Amino acid sequence: MTTVEDRELLKLPEAEPRNIEDRLRGLVRWEGGLVILFVASLFYGASTSPYFMSIQTFFFAGLNFGEIAIMALPMTFIIITGEIDLSVASMLGLSASILGYLFMHGWSIWAAMAICLVVGIVGGALNGFLITRLGLPSIAVTIGTLTLYRGIALIVLSTNTATGFPSWTTNLSLPIGGTHIAYDFAIFVVMAIIFGVVLHMTPFGRSLFAIGLQQETAFFSGVRVKRIKFLLYVLSGFICAFAGILYTFQQASSASDTGTGLELNVVAIALFGGVSIFGGRGTIFGVFLAVCIFGSLQASLTDANVSAQAQTIVTGVLLLISVLVPNARDGFSRVRSQVRRRRVRGAT
Amino acid sequence: MAKDTEDGVGTEPRGVSPEEQPLLRVDHVAKSFGPVKALIDGSVDLYRGESHALLGENGAGKSTLVKILAGVYQPDAGHVLLDGVPINLASPAAARDAGISIIYQEPTLFPDLSVAENIFMGRQPLRTGRRIDRGEMNSHSKDVFTRLGVPLNPSRLARGLSVADQQIVEIAKAISFNAQIIVMDEPTAALTEVEVSRLFDVMKNLREQGTAVMFISHRLGEVFEACQRVTVMRDGRFVNTSRIEDTDIDTIIRSMVGRDVSSMYAENTTVPGENVLEVEHLTREGVFTDVTFNVRAGEIVALAGLVGAGRTEVARGIFGIDKVDAGTVKVGGKKLAHGSPLAAMAAGIGFVPEDRRQQGLVMDMAIDRNMALASVGSLSHFGLIRKASERSLASEWAARLQLKFGRLSNNASTLSGGNQQKVVLGKWLARKPRLLIIDEPTRGIDIGTKAEVHRLLSELVAQGVAVLMISSELPEVLGMADRILVLHEGRLAAEFSRGEADEANIMRAATGQLKKSAA
Lengths: 348, 519
Ligand SMILES: Nc1ncnc2c1ncn2[C@@H]1O[C@H](COP(=O)(O)OP(=O)(O)OP(=O)(O)O)[C@@H](O)[C@H]1O
Ligand SMILES: [Mg+2]
Known about the structure:
The complex is a heterodimer of chains A (348) and B (519). With 348 residues, chain A is mainly α. Chain A has helices spanning 4-11, 15-48, 55-60, 62-80, 88-104, 109-133, 138-157, 167-170, 183-201, 203-213, 215-220, 225-251, 262-272, 284-303, 308-347.
């Protein structure tokens, strides 16, 4: 008779190779689907326009898109902890407005940018304070600050449009010298790598998942839940302010309504990238792929002269898919196992 | 194999009433989850009017068998027969219609409905005009409670009922569904002794009314108190069924574990060293008051007391889960910042909390990540987690704690209850704490592992670790602790050394009949 110890020792060595296999299977599921979709969207783009495949077009897609993609990174962190930040686009708008206002009033561009970033930190800290210290639900708080920050932007810049920024800033809308890569897309890629390493390879990233899955256990394991959430909102505010600066430079102008409504695209990209709205699940790689798909679809739809309004329909449909497919998959396997069972029963 | 395999009905006198055919027969059922064979050959017969214990180590497949009876899982093979007729338990509703009711360890009532409404959930008696007939519902419920011999008020809200009372409500619900078979999966794990004996009275009443009760517990003493027959399972297989008077604890343990279990408690011979933990005048308004004690290196100190005396709360206060209002906690002579688990951990405290599902584990996270959750910092190199170290930490502790699992990358939720507890233990032991606070260390753990956990604790103290233990099991407290502190209504009521303590004087102190001698 084997003893308990024997059995357990025998079992151990199997655990490791399967682990990898497991992981691959997990990746294949959602991210694999995204890769296929990305390739499909490239083919579609190529079929609509002969110029599409010239890399230039593709990376110029970054033009309208880089800011959304950048904001999706902190959003991913926040959604993984089971919270949300809907004030991101308003923060972008506020930052753009303040930049425009200060610049028009004779500030140096550098000083104006610094102020914008500080405002982003303060705005994020306000979100974080209300959510972690007062314990208010993040969806309510950030809907509130969505309106608040946009309101402040309106007061700052009123109906004016700020223009006349230094030429080096507007050059940012051109590709990086000698390449076909837009600046904001390059910035996004660098940031995505950093965010990916932090999320998937550091104790901090691990604690985000723990918080999203079981907050109390995380707290009992020494994770400073409130501080981490607070920091995430500060980070989000900072990065959205940064995105506001980039956006202004890309457009060579800023107005108080800059970026209105973009928060939904940001959330859509995170969810489409496989981040679970319930928290605790998601990868930066998935979000990266989602960005590529949205970007290339947008480029090809624009190429094909599809109106901006119609393009939002595409966003909506993709968002629905990202919510429906995981559920449908569960439902499908449930139905399948029922059918199989019924068949077995019929046989006996 | 001890089990007869004839399919004939009533040919083998196995039951309390040999001429009868079993009310319920579970016949060679099997269930796998992917590669994990949770249940390979589960068989058990239940007769009318018997309490039947289902025993086995953690992960033996007991709960899986129960879930098949509950209609939650569909067996891959085998049958369930009711009165000799195969039945199909396709869903929980089908199980209920077949007269099978399950009582889980932690019932899930609707807190904002009354007790009676909970009992009649979904099938309230209606008056003309389709209004719910409250009077009818309440009087029905009252009848059921009378039959059970428990005076519960049917019109009170379920919120605030003790776990024990919630179980009674579930049993009442089962009876009002005319359940003939009531299955209880570790119902006593979270109950006090008084509540356990009340539950046993209820079981006796049920039996006398012809209900068959299946009872799962890791406390073998209870089984001898409350059951007529026992079925033992091991590694997903039926081992044997015997009448309680034909067997004894040692025989049962041997068939459960497949070997002899050495003594449950190892005497701690370590000479205590310096103070590791000093708690001074610790107070949390309305919860505990002026609690002062110390724990030395190489010593096991137990906090005893009734449920609600504030034992867990004191532990939480020390570890920084809750903010305290007054007093200090010192570890190794250094004052600890209040309200910071991280500071407590940095000072070398580990805390195995009472509720493993909510506080101990991230259920939807992989086993290895759970094991490493409190240690990821020290497993990192230049800020990056070294996955290899993480995995080897997990497999080392899985082996040392004899964890039964499919793969380390499976979620903790796929583990059986006792194995989940082992993961929580491993998670803290892996940090090599100076002081281990451990709240109900062996709740839901099988007898073999329990001895193993006790041996492990003894080993720890021999290495100079200080242990502060909270346990509702008096034998465990008496067997393990070098000193026993008894809390009564948030105050230290007595302190006993190993020699002085016995069940009687602990209970006297816990119920407030003994004032602290030093005071
Ligand atoms: N959904 C699941 N997926 C994978 N494995 C599972 C699942 N459910 C149970 N198992 C495995 O099946 C085995 C039997 O589990 P089960 O819960 O029936 O044990 P048990 O006898 O009730 O143990 P305990 O006394 O600890 O509660 C365990 O090894 C467990 O890990
Ligand atoms: Mg179980």
